[in-house]
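Dear support,

Our group has been running a series of protein-ligand predictions, and this particular one with NDP is the one our PI (initials K.S.) wants archived with full inputs and outputs. We had some confusion internally about which version of the output was final, so please treat the block below as the authoritative record. The input we submitted was:
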Amino acid sequence: METVLRWGLLSAGLISHDFATALRSLPRSEHQIAAVAARDLGRAQDFARRHEIPKSYGSYEELMKDPDVDVVYVAPQHPQHLGAVLQCLAAGKPVLCEKPLGVTTAEVREMVAAARARGLFLMEAIWTRFFPAAEELRALLSQGILGEVRLVRVDFGIELEQFLDRSTDWAQAGGGLLDLGIYCIQYISMVAGGRRPEKIHAVGLLHAKGVDDTVTTVLQYPGGLQASFSCSITTKLSNSFTVFGSKGEAEIPPFMHCPTELVVNGKSTQFPLPKVADTEKFNFSNSIGMVYEAQHVRQCLLQGLKESPVMPLAESELLADILEEARRQIGLRFLQDRA
Ligand SMILES: NC(=O)C1=CN([C@@H]2O[C@H](COP(=O)(O)OP(=O)(O)OC[C@H]3O[C@@H](n4cnc5c(N)ncnc54)[C@H](OP(=O)(O)O)[C@@H]3O)[C@@H](O)[C@H]2O)C=CC1
Ligand SMILES: O=C1OC[C@@H](O)[C@@H](O)[C@@H]1O
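Confirmed final output from the archive:
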């Protein structure tokens, strides 16, 4: 593969706009956007004009056939990830798919199996893990700076119901767990080294529209590590993440899902975001930070990797398992859940 990575974007939606804006801030010798596809050609054309993308398509399938696309960024809403990812893999394209990779564990396992069967790269866009603050925390944990890690607390609550229609759309697998809870679980799993919890207990309030409103879950891991998280689409929470160990504690303050600060035993270190022109507008917080995951994907592909060592496919499966068990315990089922 040439050193320039040519991206194809599936969807002309909100996060796809942010990802395109972030990509355009990177060196063109390393990242270019070759094409965008949307269900509506007009919207794809408008998106392409806004982001100076040479090609636009009115169907995802057309983009997947484009030989000028090296990797596809899949960014429709949750329920559309499965079909798009499977089609991309069938077309021989490696994939970066937005979180959550799938709505159910069965969907995630189907995508993982398809990627492995075809020997193609697939990664779930848990962009948080690629921020320098998160990388620094991983390094400190591996050095044992906190001693034996004993307890993790994290929460993520935003009043999404007030401005994000999909957050309360049951048909689109809305709610807090899949959209926000996944960020909490990925931090807990990162601290737990990707191990499987031995106990999961969830309590939850369901929203009038049938999705999860607010959920609190506790987990216990072999060896005694305990973790708890809360997520909400109706209540603003602290949106911080804290790890407590036998020798100290580390905290990532809000917004922990796109971190720019790490506090270790009371000492704060800042990790400023990359500079971006004031004229560039984003739909979500700190979206310029999507450059980190894009650069990671390029490095993985240049090394011929089929999955990310930082966000491995087995861990995407584990995150899906934990999400599904929490949903089961609070009585939340989606269309995609099998009988
Ligand atoms: N990493 C991050 O920080 C963020 C990640 N995300 C993730 O990205 C994904 C998209 O979120 P967001 O951009 O806010 O979503 P949008 O509401 O912008 O929808 C994205 C696209 O999904 C497609 N779509 C929407 N509704 C339907 C439907 N009913 N049937 C079929 N397709 C539909 C459309 O694609 P088309 O354009 O082709 O018509 C739309 O443009 C989610 O899975 C979310 O979890 C979202 C925000 C932030
Ligand atoms: O991943 C995301 O970031 C935080 C929230 O905006 C959420 O809706 C979005 O999907």
